[in-house]
Amino acid sequence: MAVKAVEKYKVNIRLSCQAFGISETCYRYQPKLSSENAEVADWLLRLTTANKRWGFGLCFLYLRNVKHRPWNHKRVYRIYRELELNLRIKPKQRLLRDRPDPLSVPVAINQVWLMDFMSDALVGGRKFRTFNVIDDYNREGLGIEVDFSLPSTRVVRALDQIIEWRGKPAAIRCDNGSENLAAELVNWANRNHITMLYIQPGKPTQNPYIERYNRTVRHEWLDLHAFESLQHARELATQ
Question: pTM of the prediction?
């Protein structure tokens, strides 16, 4: 309005700024078009295409911590919204639940491992299972074993393979599945002086980090690929 007043009525710039309550610096400001905005938009489109479950937070942390881009989070979020990428993911309604008891926190690696099983199917419809193991200290994924059947013998072999390069854990926390209660696994743990920590039946919140890891495995791997064969699933699991 101040600019139009000066152009149309030939009013002095100082008087026009006083009339509309702005500073002369604001009046004379010219926005600087940044060519980096196109680069930010390109990065956001590439990240959200390759990682369909990523929201703004993960995209920004990747650009800042992995790619070391100096862009401000407000700027990245403005472009993120202009591209309407915030409309891809519908927020879930959160249910109010009782606050769980605090978990014991390891202070070093190999103090407690967490393990659990998942299932999925090949393109032909045949189901397969996965055996996931992570370290409770830093949530590091230690192994994903994939096969049509994973009896206790196979579980023991997978754990031995991880121990060869990672070292032996002091304890392993898991649920009360038949594979975890099998005599072969229990005897193996006793021979290696590893404590088996079983959660209460129907209480997955007592082992939340492996459940959160399972969600990542489901969203970032199982749901995004159609597996032609067991070998195909194993290769993607390794990647």
Answer: 0.64
Residue 116, strand partner residues: 132
User: What token pair was written down for 88?
Assistant: 């891809």
* CA–CA separation, 157 and 29 (whole Å): 69
Question: Among 31, 42, 36, 33, which Cα is nearest to 71's?
Answer: 36
Integer Rg of the chain from CA: 27
Q: Which two tokens stand for residue 117?
A: 């099983």
**31 contacts: CB under 8 Å, gap ≥ 6:** none
Intra-chain end-to-end CA distance of the chain, in Å = 58
- Between CA 175 and CA 199 the distance in angstroms is 5
Where along the chain do its domains lie?
1-30, 33-88, 112-238
User: Any idea of the CA torsion for 68, 70, 75, 78, to the nearest 10 degrees?
Assistant: -10
| Helix then strand then coil, % of the chain, to nearest 5 | 50, 15, 40
Quick one: CATH architecture of 112-238? 2-Layer Sandwich (3.30)
Q: How confident is the model at residue 87 (pLDDT cuts 50, 70, 90)?
A: confident
Q: What percent of the chain is predicted at pLDDT more than 90? A: 70
d(CA 110, CA 206): 19
Distance CA 173, CA 178 (A): 14
